[in-house]
Design brief:
CATH superfamily: CBS-domain
Order of helices and strands: EHEEHEEHHEEHH
Number of domains: 1
Structural class: alpha+beta
Number of strands: 7
Distance between the termini: 23 Å
Helix content: 25-40%
Strand content: 15-25%
CATH architecture: Roll
Strand order of the largest sheet: 1-2-3
Radius of gyration: 18 Å
């Protein structure tokens, strides 16, 4: 079997990075522009990945605020003002796993299983974000016979 490195399985889309001081308004605007975002990545001044906010965590936070989104069916700007005052750091994941280009598929798959996530960031050797990898892309890279065992679990 040929060795497949994780860098070959990146989704190819440029991962959106945010400065550490971003607000929830920034995240919501980005999500409204691109619903396919899975994670929000936060980098320092040297572009090194420092934190992650999962899309589902943002949606969980926003769900109770849904009633404030509209007033009689019209958009309510008060919610936007409120979200502009909330730092995204309040939703940072306590811990996050990064993949590196030199990982082989089985090693990366073990990290996916351990993390329980569908998408993980791919960083270079300096910790800079270079992409995102999905668990699905890993499974598709496995030989067909070994996939059946995964689905049985």
């Amino acid at each position: 079997m040929n060795k497949t490195y994780i860098s070959e399985l990146s989704n190819g889309r440029e991962a959106v990075c945010f400065p550490m001081e971003s607000t929830l308004k920034d995240l919501l605007i980005s999500l409204m522009e691109n619903w396919k975002i899975h994670n929000f990545y936060f980098v320092d001044g040297k572009e090194v990945l420092q934190a992650v906010v999962r899309k589902n965590r943002l949606l969980e936070y926003l769900a109770p605020l849904y009633a404030a989104v509209t007033i009689d069916g019209e958009y309510n700007p008060a919610l936007e003002n409120r979200l502009a005052r909330v730092q995204a750091s309040q939703l940072f994941a306590d811990d996050f796993t990064c993949l590196t280009p030199g990982l082989l598929v089985p090693e990366a798959l073990a990290l996916f299983v351990e993390s329980g996530m569908e998408y993980l960031p791919l960083t270079d050797n300096r910790g800079r974000l270079i992409g995102e990898v999905s668990a699905d892309s890993l499974i598709k890279a496995l030989p067909v016979g070994s996939r059946e065992h995964l689905y049985a679990v």
